[in-house]
Amino acid sequence: MEAQKCTLAVYPGSFDPITNGHLDLLRRGLKLFDRIVIAVAINPAKRPLFSLEERLEMIKQSLEDFPFKDRVDVDVFPGLLVDYVKKVGAKAILRGLRAVSDFEYEFQMALMNRKLCGDVETFFLMTGMRWIYISSRIIKEVVMAGGSVTGLVPEPVEKKLLEKLSQETTR
Asked: Which of these is catalytic: 28, 35, 86, 98?
């Protein structure tokens, strides 16, 4: 049996908010895939800081000056990731790993996705060393505590974080 070349990958996440680490992984993923869909998950179990619309807006703004932005789509998906992957005609899921703690969860998810749909492969990329310590959660915590995240998130995201969190603290 001949292997099919994967030309489309889905890069799923909550992206609450998108960080420079996410963009680095996207940039590197585009060396492996012709196109990537950033798929924002609708997860009722999570309580995001930003609305779905705000996250989509920040992602699109962050991609305005992104090289190869013509090879990136931004979309939303509810339900099972593998159902969405099949719907868009992809055969690959792109995920980033920062540490061993990420690996355990991601490994379980990759195995479940394979069980649900054996035609879809998960590709893991190690986070670039420059971004290994950041996550969306840590970014929000730093801003809430009054710290600077300049250089860790795209400028539109930093601006939106400051706006959103100043509104939260004045309530």
From this structure: 98
Has 55 been annotated as catalytic?
no
For 21-70, write each residue's pLDDT tens digit: 999 999 999 999 999 999 999 988 888 999 999 999 999 999 999 988 99
Catalytic annotation, pick one of 14, 22, 55, 62: 22
- Is 140 labeled as catalytic in the residue annotation? no
pTM score, whole prediction: 0.91
Residue 19 backbone zone (phi > 0: left; psi -120 to 50: alpha; other: beta): beta
Domains of the chain: 8-132 (3.40.50.620)
> Does the active-site annotation cover 22?
yes
| Known active-site residue 148 | no
User: Rounded mean pLDDT of the chain?
Assistant: 91
Nearest Cα residue to 19 out of 104, 124, 132, 106: 132
